[in-house]
Amino acid sequence: MAAFTDPGMVTQENHRLALQKYPYDNILFTPGVKCTTCGFVKPARSKHCRTCKGCVARQDHHCVWINNCVGQGNNHYFILFLCSISLLLTYGAYASHLLLSQLLQAKQQSLEMFSNRQRLQPIPGIRHWSTGLDWSDYFASWGWALVEDVCVGGVGLLSALCMPMAWGFLGYHIYLMWAGMTTNESLKWADWRDDIADGLVFIAEEETGETFLLNTGQVEKDVEPQLAYPSPRKRALKRTLDGKPPIYPQSSDKVSNPDLQGKFTPEWRRVTSLREVDNIYDRGFWKNVESVFKPVFL
User: Fold this and answer.
1) Distance (Å, whole) CA 115 – CA 112
2) Range 129-149 burial, b when 16+ CB lie within 10 A, else e
3) Biased-composition ranges for Polar residues (predicted)?
4) Given this model, what pLDDT does residue 218 score?
């Protein structure tokens, strides 16, 4: 299902509906950015996939294991895929361990029975096969068991080696749900975090009721998000190359420049931590989970 379900491809027919899904946060996603390949304005949280040859709504990543993008339409199937794979690999490793341990125990029992018959002694209770073995003999016994039953041993080794990776992926995607992010967005936030650490990011918050000159992009006024997301605060977040606050036109230029009417020069302060920046897509863990497992299809 994760491989064959539409991940949420944005087309000319559903483009307007895709714009209504999520608001722009003016940090990771700004209005007016046009996809040069698809030819339309990119909806918030979408990303163009060169492999799938299209923009995907709330794109997480392109997964080579399912040969499909993971997006708004199939993210819940992908989470269930990770759950099932993790559980099956754990079961495979555990079952193989039990079968090979039984094989070693049967070998230990036959050896002790043969030894007691040779000595004409009664057969006592059979001890566990690993009792009294040092580490080299212990691992040598497992090596014998793997060779003795290659099929079970191969399944056990494959399961044991892949199990940590599957649980790691599952844990990472649970974290993404908790944080209200996608893999694509986590990479964007990582870029901001690196620039903040270098002292290159500044923030300005509205205090006068006027609006910022955030960007030149425009979005249709009657296109509003359908979901209840917190409105982004009137603030600007900017990167600079020299570590100095951005320079905007002075307030005296408002009169001479009609384009700056209703705008002002904000007071910039340096951002010291990513915690100072709001992620409006984080609506709380349970609402984030609901948005993944009850997707609104295009």
Assistant:
1) 5
2) beeeeeeeeeeebbeebbeeb
3) 249-259
4) 45
Q: How far apart are the C-alpha atoms of 124 and 253, rounded to whole Å?
A: 100
d(CA 67, CA 4): 9
Encoded amino acid at 198, one letter: D
Nearest to 266 by CA among 229, 238, 230, 225: 238
Cα separation, 155 vs 95, in Å, equals: 9
The alpha carbon of residue 42 and the mean position of all alpha carbons in its chain are separated, in whole angstroms, by 21
- Report pLDDT for 260: 45
pTM metric for this prediction = 0.76
Q: Which of 38, 49, 55, 63 is catalytic?
A: 63
83 in catalytic set: no
Place of tokens 């944005």: 10
Kindly give, in sequence order, each residue whose CB lies less than 8 Å from that of residue 92, ignoring residues fewer than 6 positions away.
155, 156, 158, 159
Query: Residue 173 and residue 77: Cα distance in Å, rounded?
Result: 12
